Amino acid sequence: MMILGGRSLQLVYALLILLHMQTSVGFDSTTGDYEIRCIESERQALLAFKQSLVDEYGTLSTWGSEEEKKECCKWEGVQCSNTTRHVTVLELSLLRGGSLSNQLANLTSLQHLSLGYNNFNSVKNLEWLSCLSYLQFLDMSGIDLSRVTNSLQQAINKLPSLTHLVLRSTNLTASTFQSSLKFNNSPVSLIPENLGHITNLEFLDLSYNQFEGGIPKSFGNLCKLTHLVLSNNKLDGMLPEIMGNISGCLQVSLGSLILDGNKIKGPFPDMIKNFSSLVELTLSNNQLSGTLPKSIGLLSKLGSLNISSNSFNGVITEAYFLTLSKLRFLDMSFNPLNINFSRDWIPPFQLNYLGLQSCKLGPKFPSWLKTQRELSILDISRNEISDSIPEWFWNLTSTAFQIDLSSNQIHGVLPNLSTTKFPDSFSLGIDLSKNRLEGLFPVFPTNVTYINLSENRFSGSISSLCTINAEILQFVDVSSNQLSGELPDCMARWTSLVILNLANNHLLGKIPSFIGSLSLLGSLGLQNNSLSGEIPWSLGNCSALQFLDLSYNSFSGIIPTWIGERLSSLAFLLLRSNNFSGDIPLQLCWLTNIILLDLSNNNLYGSIPRCIQNLTALAQKESSTRYYLFNNSNIVGTAWYSGTYADKASVMWKGMERDYGNGNLKNLRIVDLSGNKLTGEIPVQISVLLELVQLNLSRNQLTGRIPSDIGQMRQLESLDLSQNQLSGHLPGSMSQLNFLSTLNLSYNNFSGRIPLSTQIQSFNASAFVGNPSLCGLPLTPTCAGDEKPKSKPTDSGGKDNQEDRSEFWKSFTLGMELGAAIGFVGVLAVKLDHPWKHLCFLLFNNVRVRLSNLKDCLYLLVAAVGFVVREHVSRWGRKLKLFEPSVSS
Ligand SMILES: *[C@@H]1O[C@H](CO)[C@@H](O)[C@H](O)[C@H]1NC(C)=O
Ligand SMILES: *[C@@H]1O[C@H](CO)[C@@H](O)[C@H](O)[C@H]1NC(C)=O
Ligand SMILES: *[C@@H]1O[C@H](CO)[C@@H](O)[C@H](O)[C@H]1NC(C)=O
Ligand SMILES: *[C@@H]1O[C@H](CO)[C@@H](O)[C@H](O)[C@H]1NC(C)=O
Ligand SMILES: *[C@@H]1O[C@H](CO)[C@@H](O)[C@H](O)[C@H]1NC(C)=O
Ligand SMILES: *[C@@H]1O[C@H](CO)[C@@H](O)[C@H](O)[C@H]1NC(C)=O
Ligand SMILES: *[C@@H]1O[C@H](CO)[C@@H](O)[C@H](O)[C@H]1NC(C)=O
Ligand SMILES: *[C@@H]1O[C@H](CO)[C@@H](O)[C@H](O)[C@H]1NC(C)=O
Ligand SMILES: *[C@@H]1O[C@H](CO)[C@@H](O)[C@H](O)[C@H]1NC(C)=O
């Protein structure tokens, strides 16, 4: 009995456990006291939802059907109600791929659904959304909803509780939205009117879509809306009409109106004063114009005003800020505004951020700044200030950590800044570049990480930089001053330095070997000083270097092999105009990231290495990730300057020296080996450098032919092979260099006919002089033998392409005589664009002459007509011979 009783008790227990499992009213097996709240059907729905996803990062590893994972309320991203036990919150991110299945419809009590920035591959239907009738918060940002805009819209209309709707970057264009209109055959995508009927809406974010037009009138009825974010669409309405449209009860509730990055036009309407709750108003990056209404000054709750990058003009006085005592962020940069406050004005506000870049504050230094005791960021660059910096200014720095006074005409001497108090911030930055400051190089506060004093008139030694807390210094640009002396020893401690630009000064001595301790250095500019000696081996420790410019100094010795072996990140290597000698080391071919190689004007001898083909970056289109200096990342914690600074270099471009900066440099692909004593042939491998834009091998002692495949290098804009001993025919493929705008082949031993192309014949004869055996335009009108009747050119296997085209060549010559006709044809071409174009390209379709545009084609057509006329009057009279090259090719 007892035993039986024991058994039945066990049975009862087992049954109980089973029951617990089914109704989810059990005990957690590990802690023993936790009630499982998860509702089984919702758990199944979540599991089925998981099935359709790709969970590459293991975000959903806590989701499972195993016993220990029974409590779905503890799953990653899931929250349940304590009272009803239903899933109420689902917040998922970092999922990669998979489809968004309709299983979520079973989570009927869901209040918060956040699926932003998941990479679902196909969203086909969103009708299930309408089952989630308790939904308050919906975020589907970053999901391509362009194919489900209709079902999204219908579902949203059935969600009475919705207060927050976030649809950033969802490809909502209206070509698929119901409200789309057809206008001039192009779909116009307007913000759907019926979003204005979700009357409980408090927060609406539709930024980064492609909406056009304005804001529908229905939005005026959104009496609870506090945040309206429509940044980065294509809105192009007039601001007064947009404001008029939303002038219902929304006026009273709206706290944040964010409209930046659109194409909104028109003036800033006076009725802004009716939006009395505005705390944040962002209109930057639009096409607004006119003067600002003084009524802005009545928005007494305004904390942030951003109108940067528009075309507002007129004079800004203190009247505009009458009651703005809460203003903290003011950005009016990039407007031609004349900012004219009276000298003793005491503003009602204390700003944290003042951005007035490219306005007009000058010529006096703005004295009202004296009152601002909480500034963190101050940018008054490009403001035509031609004054000295008043002493009180350095008192402002006790709170500011980014100060930009660059590109004014500020003059005078800087005080000793080491005693000024700066905030304990690791990203204190001072930009005083492009002014007229002078005197000895100033002593800086210890905690500075960014210093830009370039393009001033500072003199003396840079050793005062040694007072800086070296470990945190990241950026030093003191280029283009009158600094002298040697590189100070203290630099050895600048172990965080990423950018060092000392170019265009009078620095002396060698590169010290401690340069190797700057292991994060990405950019080193020492060009145009009086530095000498060999490049120290320790520079090879700077393996992060991407930019190295030692041009215009007196460096000597060989080009070290370790540059190729150890500086594998180098994208720019400029050693121009020094005294380097010896061979070009083969190891330079290891620099697979190089896009600019300038070794010109040295004493290099030997041949051009055939391995040059290994410089693969010169053969590839731009890779956006390779050059981090230009791409915003590696300079930690200082978003202020990263990305805006690009290395400056003086590049010989088409025979003229030019300064490149602001990121232009990365678009160039240049090899310049000119002005050395290089011998041997141009390696044929060079023609695989398909993206090369400029090749300069002039003033060497090169022999042999131009590689016959040179025409492959379609991007070439500048080719200089002058003053060598090159010989042979110019390869016919040169006629394919359509972008060529600078060509110099003078003073070599080339022979034969200059190849025919609209590009090549457009150069002056000077590009070809000094080659006695070269003939044809633009050098000579004809080549010897042109007058002899030529045998029929049926042999298409001729090695030189230009021979194939000799008949054409004659006609071309004649055609040039008929040049006056071109203008007439050109006019015709404009009038009759399509027919002419098609006829022309049809006629010359197979001719191996590159026709890049209609004008060229018509040019040839005229030439062809000339040929026909000529052939017709000639004894042979074979009119149709004109088209033989196309038949034979
Ligand atoms: C979700 O609900 C539908 C309809 O009520 C039902 O057919 C389906 O089985 C449910 N799915 C799961 C996983 O419970
Ligand atoms: C629900 O219960 C959990 C755990 O007991 C608790 O942390 C949470 O605060 C509760 N939530 C509410 C809204 O009561
Ligand atoms: C939007 O559409 C474009 C073109 O179809 C696509 O390249 C892009 O990835 C889409 N954006 C999102 C967020 O899916
Ligand atoms: C104003 O609202 C109407 C009706 O919703 C709309 O058609 C129009 O495009 C809106 N205009 C602007 C400038 O917002
Ligand atoms: C602005 O508000 C005033 C009164 O609060 C009202 O009379 C006026 O019509 C409003 N203007 C617009 C354009 O809505
Ligand atoms: C103002 O807007 C511009 C462009 O949208 C942005 O770059 C800038 O950071 C904004 N200023 C402030 C203070 O947020
Ligand atoms: C700067 O501040 C210090 C102390 O905070 C004060 O003694 C000094 O007078 C101020 N200098 C100027 C020029 O306002
Ligand atoms: C420099 O920054 C550090 C760290 O924030 C701080 O402890 C130190 O006091 C600062 N030094 C000065 C002189 O401001
Ligand atoms: C150039 O690349 C080829 C193929 O990757 C390799 O075999 C050769 O060693 C490289 N040449 C040099 C000098 O690095």
Automatic annotation (TrEMBL):
Signal peptide start-end: 1-26
Entry membrane topology: Single-pass type I membrane protein
Compartments where found: Cell membrane
GO cellular component terms given for this protein: plasma membrane
Location of the Leucine-rich repeat-containing N-terminal plant-type domain: 40-81
PROSITE patterns with a match to the protein in the record: LRR
UniProt entry tagged with the keyword Transmembrane: yes
Keyword entries, A-Z: Cell membrane, Glycoprotein, Leucine-rich repeat, Membrane, Receptor, Repeat, Signal, Transmembrane, Transmembrane helix
Family to which this protein belongs: Belongs to the RLP family.
Record protein name field: Leucine-rich repeat-containing N-terminal plant-type domain-containing protein
UniProt source species: Rubroshorea leprosula
